[in-house]
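Run log, item B.
One chain of 285 residues. Sequence copied directly from the ordering sheet:
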Amino acid sequence: MIDRFVTRAGLRLHVIDHGGAGPDVLLLHAGSAHARWWDFVVPHLGAGFHVYALDLRGHGESAWAPDGAYRIADYAADLADVIRELGLENPALAGHSLGSFVALRYAVDHPRGLSALVVVDGRASLGAASTRYMRLLAMLAPTSYDTLDDAVASFRPLPQDTIATPAVLAHVARHGMRREHGRWTTRFDRASLGAHEAFDLRDRLRDFECPVLFIRGEHSTVISKAALAKLSAACRRGQSIELPGAFHHLPIDRPDLLGAAIRRFLDEALRSARPPKGAARAAKR
């Protein structure tokens, strides 16, 4: 695991390079989370990929935007620079929740720029009611704690429903806290919650040239099974699956099932994209 940094528009963006040999896969976390939420998924992806995980601006170890620029378009522009600076050519993207919004926006802007796309418990649209709710959350003052242990013990994901083990919750909580003025508080910028604008990318899904996998947790309240199937059907090469027992927070609820599902999908998607043996040799003649 190597920490890398890319600077865009004056912001220092943090990327975890998990290493590996094979096609590039870039993982994008949910809102108010960070790249270490993928730590338990990565081992289940197998050794056949070179895996990266990005801290979105205002999250994890990436810099905060002083002007409050936390629109989906801002994250997607950052992502484009990260992909370019790391020299990733047609990577696969997997995004959870907010990360899926960013991945979808990037795919809209770069319809031929991805080898595959995985949308984890995310939607292709966000309504005005949701943005108003997020703005209310942004107005709440962050809670601070005397000790890191107190902060970890008080950690609850949002939504709160989860089957993540105590060890997994403690892991993501510890990496999601920072010390400020002698006390411990959350590492993400709360202004990021209130900057979302309503959007609807459903009519753009048919433009995607790469295979797309939509995944939801069986008990997710973010997207229904029927809605997931509609998104899948809207893509040229879409498919959808449901992971049993999980809620919204799939990377920590069932990292084993999520990693295995992504691995199977990418194996098939990237295999079908490769020319058959001898084709490249014949083309050179």
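Observations after the first pass:
- The radius of gyration is 19 Å.
- The chain is about 35% helix and 20% strand.
Flagged for discussion on Thursday.
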